Amino acid sequence: MNYTAHQLRVFLKISETASITKAAEELHLTQPAVSIQLKNFQQQFDVPLTEVIGRKMFITDFGKEVAQAAEKILDEFNAIHYRTREFKGELAGKLRISVVSTGKYIIPHFLSGFLKQHQGVTLQLDVTNKAKVVQSLEENTVDFSLVSVLPEKMKIHKLELMENKLFLVGARDQPVPSGRQPLTIFEQLPLIYREAGSGTRHVMEKYIASHKIPAVKKMELATNEAVKQAVIAGMGYSIMPLIGIKNELGNGELQIIPVKGFPIKSVWNLIWLKEKKFSPAAQAYLAYVKQEKENIIREKFSWTGKT
Description:
Layout: H1 5-17, H2 20-27, H3 31-42, E1 50-53, E2 56-59, H4 61-87, E3 92-100, H5 112-117, E4 120-128, H6 130-138, E5 144-147, E6 156-171, E7 190-194, H7 199-210, E8 216-221, H8 224-232, E9 238-241, H9 246-250, E10 254-256, E11 264-273, H10 280-300
Parallel strand pairs: 3-4, 3-5, 7-8
Antiparallel strand pairs: 1-2, 5-11, 6-9, 6-10, 6-11
Helix pairs in contact: 1-2, 1-3, 1-4, 2-3
């Protein structure tokens, strides 16, 4: 056999996504390039690695075993790379972070400076919903998680980063009465919810329940972006984090509807397991965030305090 590390990486990504298209997007390659690598890799085995039924790709049982082996081999390659940098006196290693979906508007600003300082550190960033973020922390597959709702019944440490504000928003052409509205306005507004397991939905439902708001649930959508586009299209209203709608407010696609008692406030927290044994890269990252968080908030997020 004469497979390459590149072929292993491509096949591992295909096995994770079960899609050549998605694998190409995540690897920043063209679909034909990924298809060629898969074809060349498959030619080295007499047993199929994948199969296509209808238009859907599936990884065979043999393919799954090869993917597991590929992951181990690539981990060894990475270990050699990290050790080489360490012998040169550089910080090296992998930093693993899981982030709730709206946290994607925050975490890059708390990472970019650190990664620029330490070229030997690679980042594995998983952006998903709150339930899966908590699961990744429970299973100890990440160093840190970014959440706005702290997990219950889990022994964690936390570092508060910044305030999270949620507002009632509607499309720019939706008629809105003047002045700050009473909570009874929710009786008239069809609300669009995030999916169960979302931190935004948790905060939203907790507020609605505690204030006994007679909310009208119009629909439920899986991502913050889907909710945003539905609101822009005039399909309903939603309670959304300010951090995720900056551009849409700026260009006039969305408007904040002033409501008494709003915004709803929570806190973005970087969390980790109490008994977590950090790698040098994770230790360095935590020290960096503690030292630089106020500067980052002032430079990148001062606009949130003006709303």
